[in-house]
Amino acid sequence: MKKVLVGVSSETTDLWPVIYALNLAKRVKMRLFVLLVLDPRERRLKKEEYRVDESSIKMRLEALLSEGRSCGIPIDYHIANGSYKEELIQLIQNKEISLVVLAMPTAAPKGASEGINDILDEIKLRTACDIEIVHPRGSVQEK
Question: What's the average model confidence in pLDDT over 100-116?
C-alpha cells in the first residue's frame, strides 16, 4: 500500500494539498498521513490573532479528515511543534513515506517560495520519496 504524506503548516491558509490527497486516496489504495506543524517560534513572533488562525486551520483540516475517514480512507493525523522542514523529513523517514504532497505558496512575501525550494531540496537530499506540489485553484504562475 502506498504511503502518502501531506504537510500543512499552521501559517498555511491553503488546504488544497489535503483535498488533492483525499481525492487521490478515493481512487488509489493508499494510506494517508497528514502532518500539521505548529512552529512555536511563530507564536512568539505574531500577535494574538495568530492563535485564531491556528485554531481555524486546525478545525478546517480536522473536518476534511473526518470526511475522508467517513469515505473509508485510512488516515493518520499527526500534530508536531517545531521546524516544518525537520518535522516533515522526520515523518517521511520514520513512516517510509513514498509520496509527499505540499502546497506552493502564493501571494506570499518575497522569500516564501525560496523557503519551499529549501524544503524540497532537503527532502530530495535526505529521503527517497516522490514530491508533488499543489498549486491553489485559480493561481497563475509567472514565468
Answer: 70
